[in-house]
Write a structure and sequence with these properties.
By secondary structure, this protein is α+β, with helices and mostly antiparallel strands. The protein contains seven helices and four strands. A four-stranded mixed beta sheet has the order 2-1-3-4. A hairpin with a 6-residue loop joins strand 1 and strand 2. Helix 1 crosses helix 6, helix 2 packs parallel to helix 4 and helix 5 crosses helix 6.
């Protein structure tokens, strides 16, 4: 699944995640938006959502000034929404997840990481809420396909993942053959956590030929 770039994949991932995440957010009381997130220390659920919505609107509106998506830029985007209600943040997020896909497709792969990052952050929110399957759900197949492509395009460390819930191994990273592929055995959500640098929460898996921190694609 990593060998051919599917330009529509990021848009499908965002729309699939929108349909799963937005109804969940609409049901939560205001106090839940203040819950801290383990994956993003110092950020509450609301902060993560404000970051996501602002990032997507930057894509929609093609606003990429110098330093965009840096920690300082992210903090400014969150601060700009401090006076908004939680539902206004969710409204903007819904619009961004609906409209950003077309802009990402038009960018020809340069912004694909944004879509994957948004999906991972949705998992961060679900985990903060205590929802089961934080980094799973209907978007997972799209996320895995996008992860495979991105790691290949970036020349990331090669890895063969034997997933508990898939019939065929997932091949990630560069395929030059210069380095023997590392090997992962375990479930797909844990693989996502490794590549996203998220807490593993005691998950059981096997990893050989690479250190876990070498897999993090978000730095």
């Amino acid at each position: 699944m990593a060998e051919v770039h599917d330009p529509e994949l990021p848009a499908r991932l965002l729309v699939t995640e929108r349909d799963a995440l937005i109804p969940l957010l609409r049901r939560r009381p205001d106090e839940d938006f203040a819950i801290p997130t383990a994956a993003c220390p110092g950020w509450s659920v609301r902060d993560v959502l404000a970051h996501c919505s602002s990032a997507l609107m930057r894509v929609v509106e093609s606003r990429f000034e110098e330093g965009v998506f840096s920690p300082e830029s992210n903090d400014r985007d969150i601060a700009e929404r401090a006076g908004w209600s939680n539902q206004q943040v969710v409204d903007e997020l819904e619009r961004g997840m609906t409209e950003a896909g077309a802009a990402i497709v038009k960018a020809g792969g340069r912004l694909d990481m944004v879509a994957l990052g948004e999906w991972v952050h949705a998992g961060d929110v679900r985990e903060a809420f205590g929802e089961p399957g934080a980094y799973a759900g209907p978007g997972l197949p799209h996320a895995l396909a996008l992860l495979a492509w991105l790691t290949r395009a970036k020349g990331h460390v090669p890895l063969h993942a034997d997933l508990d819930d898939a019939d065929e191994p997932l091949r990630l990273g560069e395929a030059s053959g210069e380095r023997t592929p590392a090997r992962y055995i375990g479930d797909a959500p844990t693989l996502v956590r490794l590549y996203a640098g998220r807490p593993l929460n005691g998950a059981s898996y096997e990893l050989a030929g690479v250190e876990a921190d070498e897999l993090n694609i978000f730095g």
